Amino acid sequence: MTDEAGAAHPMAGAAGTPLPPQPNKAAPLYQKRIKIYPKRVSGLFRNVKWVVMLITLGIYYITPWLRWDRGPSAPDQAVLLDLPNRRFYIFFIEIWPQEIYYLTGLLILSALALFLVTSLFGRVWCGYACPQTVWTDLFIWVERLVQGDRNKRMRLDKAPWRLEKIAKKSITHGIWLVISVATGGAWVFYFADAPTLLSDLLQGDAPMAAYIAIAALSFTTYSLGGLMREQVCTYMCPWPRIQGAMFDADTYLVSYKADRGEPRGPHKQGESWEGRGDCIDCKACVTVCPVGIDIRDGPQLECIQCALCVDACNEIMDRVDRPRGLIDYETLAMPQARAEGRETRPKLLRGRTIIYGLSILLTMAIMAYGLLTRSDLDLSVQQDRNPLYVLLSDGGVRNGYQLKIINKAHEERNFIIAIKGLDGYELSRPNHQGPVDVVSVGPDAQKTIRLYVALPKEGLNASRFRDGEAQIRIMLRQEDDQASGDLGDSARPVLASQNIGFRTPPQR
Q1: How far apart, in whole angstroms, are the C-alpha atoms of residue 168 and residue 238?
Q2: Residue 351: beta bridge partners?
């Protein structure tokens, strides 16, 4: 094909023949989702999943309603994340903002436990206890209860929109929405007194943030558990990409035993099993898979190790009178061991599992030691920077400090302020009535005070203050009329203290 000047047409092929018409639209970048209809199955692992689901959902929904007596001045909710008052209450543990490292330790402990379990048994967290899996299981159960098992759901989706389909779909999605709202509502109960917040929510008196949080969590629960399902595990979750670094040849994974199952093919009753494998290619393992994969294709990114395919295959093996375990938990090293005639023993104690286990014990020991030795009183002292010191009319020097005292006990406490390292000092507090050296702090509260420490001219030791600064110690002692008697305040135990500088003009 040429144009009027005799040149080859740009749409012509090498031999001058026209090229096929080019598409106007580019091919889609992603494949459209193929809906998965998991079939109901019964067996050991399915029962374990039911038990785990009931336990985890029970913990999530019931925990905010548990009570824990902490005294008259503290909330009695067992688990409360009190953000307005900056307190986290977890049964007998009370975490203040300055102790956020305990939460960091808890996150580290959870991560190490997840690493250990993954190195031993693969993605069992994903298959049994992950919130996405738990709520997806619950939503599929509701769908199956209303619409029927796999074949009925498939026929219903293909059927025209008539009264039966509209009714079943509406009931299904209605129950999903109720579960989603209950999920979002249960979450906000962790951040306020649950009975009070529930009453406020029903009466429309709750803070707007609570309604927004419930709406947001309801939307995510409904969309992720009801609509997206396996796509969250396949495309959105980073954990499948990370877990590969934690597997080795001795990690137990749900696997198809190809050395026993191949060659596969249909089998009729009465036929011999000689010259063939135990797999009858019934695809029962595929139809029960919640992510729609074929476990016989080997380890795959999408597999969440739920082991439902194990239950399905065992049921088929029972029917055809073959041994169970064609699909089972096994390591990547076991097929090679069987091929060489060696015994396949589990190897749970390995380098990485020992490291993870010791790290978990060390983290638990550090956290336990910190909790057992933690003080119920904190003192933080900050020295004034502008000015560093004030010269008094009598030749003395005064320094200003800001003291922040945190009383973590559930009763009011009185403390005596004392200074070590200065002789003949005088204390003063602006706008304060009563004894200068006594401070009262309410239960489970903090108090900030201004404190001036003055040193007369006679107390300025030229050798000690030669560089214009000396280290002193500001202390808090417990006020107790019967503690010291005639021995004076020095006999009272020091409950909290901090070293800080006392500044003067350079001495000559």
Answers
A1: 35
A2: none
Determine contact, residues 303/124, Cβ cutoff 8 Å: no
What is the spatial order of strands in the sheet that 469-478 belongs to? Answer: 438-441, 413-420, 469-478, 494-503
Span 277-334, pLDDT tens digits? 999 999 999 999 999 999 999 888 899 999 999 999 999 999 999 999 999 999 989 9
Closest CA to 115 of 242, 263, 267: 242
For the chain, what's the residue count? 508
pTM of the shown model: 0.80
Based on its alpha-carbon atoms, the radius of gyration of the chain, rounded to whole angstroms, reads 36
Give the DSSP H or E segment for 329: strand 327-330
For the stretch 26-46, pLDDT in tens is 656 666 778 999 999 999 999
Q: How far is CA 156 from the centre of its chain?
A: 38
Amino acid at 423: D
- Alpha-carbon distances, residue 78 vs 64, 89, 120, 190, 197 (angstroms): 7, 7, 34, 10, 15
Amino acid present at 136: T
Token pair for 400: 């200003």
| Spatial separation of the C-alpha atoms in residues 391 and 79, rounded to whole Å | 53
307 phi-psi bin (left φ>0, alpha ψ -120 to 50, beta other) = left
- Count of C-beta atoms within a 10 Å radius of residue 119: 23
Mean pLDDT, 10 residues at a time, over the chain (508 residues)? 46 52 59 87 96 96 94 88 90 86 92 94 93 95 95 94 95 97 94 94 93 96 93 88 85 93 90 91 95 92 93 95 94 89 84 94 94 88 90 90 91 90 88 89 90 87 75 85 44 84 81
Beta bridge partners of 401: 383, 451
Q: For 67, which DSSP code?
A: B
Quick one: three-class SS letters along 8-49?
ECCCECCCCCECCCCCCCCCCCCCCCCCCCCCCCCCHHHHHH
Residue 258 contacts residue 279 (beta carbons within 8 Å): no
Q: 431 φ, ψ to 5°?
A: 60, 35
Give how far Cα 84 sits from Cα of 145, 352, 409, Å: 43, 42, 19
CA-based torsion, 433, 439, 444, 449: positive or negative: positive
Coil, helix or strand at residue 456: coil
| Helix runs in 101-257, H state only | 101-121, 124, 131-147, 150-158, 163-188, 194-203, 208-221, 230-231, 239-243
Ordered DSSP codes for 355-408: HHHHHHHHHHHHHHHHHHH--SEEEEEEE--SSS-EE-TTS-EEEEEEEEEEE-
**What's the count of helices (H) and strands (E) in the chain, helices before strands?**
16, 14
